[in-house]
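Worked Example 4.2. Consider the chain below.
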Amino acid sequence: MKSGARERVSRAQRDILELSHRIHAHPELGFEEERACAWLENLLADNGFSVSHAACDVPTAFVARAGSGPLQVGICAEYDALPGIGHACGHNMIAAMAAGAAIAAAAVADDAGLTITVLGTPAEEVGDASGKILMLERGAFDHLHAAMMVHPAPVEMLEMHIIAASMFEVHYTGKPAHASAFPELGINAADALTIAQTSIGLLRQHLKQTDRVHGITTHGGDAPNVIPAHTSARYIVRAKNLEELRDVRTRVVRCFEAGALATGATLEIRGGTKPYADLKPDRAISAAYKRNAESLGRTFPDLGVLGERMAASTDMGNVSHALPTIHPMIGIDSMPAVNHQPEFAAHCVTDIADKAVVEGSLAMAWTAIDLATDEATRDRLMMRR
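Applying the procedure from the previous section yields the following structure tokens:
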């Protein structure tokens, strides 16, 4: 069966790599990925998958299914880009690997006892109420026994340090006035934001080393001779897990409240109600993936403290709280370029990246086969549902 999956990846390789490059050349932001979604749906439909468009009432989500075996394995595809720097997190590769793995596994699904589901999950980069979270809430993952995806990174990592995160918008409203003639008549919304940012800077001394707070100002005022009446910012708060995240977010919100209290501006916080969870990888599935990746010649270096420091967040963490999940990183030899840099985006369509797409596809397909054909693993996964 693994030989059959390898042969199927080989035959589909041109289409899989063409998909990766096409998505990379046409970056789309979260919940706007109309072309990427359609290209994925068409490729999977052409390879025998039944495809449901706009799954879970999300216009750029889909669910595609093939096979009729009892063990149901989901493969997640991400395909949104980052503002200004395109596919600097390699979601073009993620989408292509999901399609490639599914096509390969589907070729032997009935023999292996598998049903393969590809979940097109948009808007991973939005940081709140994202595609996977909405699809989880609306039942797209309910029938699955396990889920997986592979993410590009500078180096190979079996289990990246994935922590919880909450993204929200901050809006201050003050009162405009002439900044020179009548400043006493204004309420300065920019001052409110400055006070909040200063408070957050002072708060950092009292945060844990595993906490993160970072953000940008999205509107700072309209003219220097007018007291700013409206300012806004977008912030992300991260912590080791959801419980610790709630505490850190509460403390950060107080900093924003301080800005409003000091200036008299009004404060509105939007979003942050559907945070990303920390990732809980399934160790047995991770071990199977590692064996399969190593059999393809891939190696997993010991990153030591650096691996712990490289903390990121993804809505795949939420999936891992609902069912057995893995989210390994596949190396594309990009150093010193790292994720979320334009230089990393350029690396995601190199020959090395293309090789990773093919091998990541095959490693996931083989792992799905292992889950279905190893009796103890299959029984454990199916017992959960």
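The chain has a mean pLDDT of 97. The longest strand covers residues 164-173. Compare this with Example 4.1 before moving on.
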